[in-house]
Design a protein that fits this description.
The protein is mainly α. It has one domain. It has helices spanning about 5-25, 30-50, 60-105. It is rod-shaped and about 70 Å long. It starts with 5 loop residues before the first helix and ends with a helix.
């Protein structure tokens, strides 16, 4: 496992923000890939933060407060994208169920 540094954390933050921005304009296929990437990046960020907590940074109240605010901000954005994806999938499933119902009716089984 690599040693977490401030630079590692900054790079992860950048990739997370990039994935979040990409989700806003992504089609469904891209969205699936970006959500998977986002999950991986968020997990890596958590590991990096845990590693940095054992350094001098972890003893700095201002740095801790800044990381808390950023984590909360990223969590809100990620959860919003996840909720949007669930709504999309829910609509897709509902539409498929309606199509299946109509197909059964047409086949005389409804």
């Amino acid at each position: 496992m690599m040693m977490a540094t401030e630079q590692t954390l900054a790079e992860l933050n950048q990739r997370i923000e990039s994935a979040l921005k990409g989700l806003a304009e992504a089609n469904d296929e891209q969205r699936e890939l970006l959500l998977a990437q986002l999950t991986d990046e968020l997990d890596a960020r958590e590991v990096a933060l845990k590693g940095l907590m054992t350094t001098e940074l972890g003893q700095n109240p201002e740095w801790l407060q800044e990381q808390l605010k950023l984590t909360q901000f990223l969590t809100i954005q990620a959860n919003q994208h996840l909720a949007d994806q669930r709504m999309r999938l829910g609509g897709y499933r509902k539409g498929r169920k309606q199509v299946q119902t109509y197909q059964q009716i047409e086949a005389g089984r409804g």
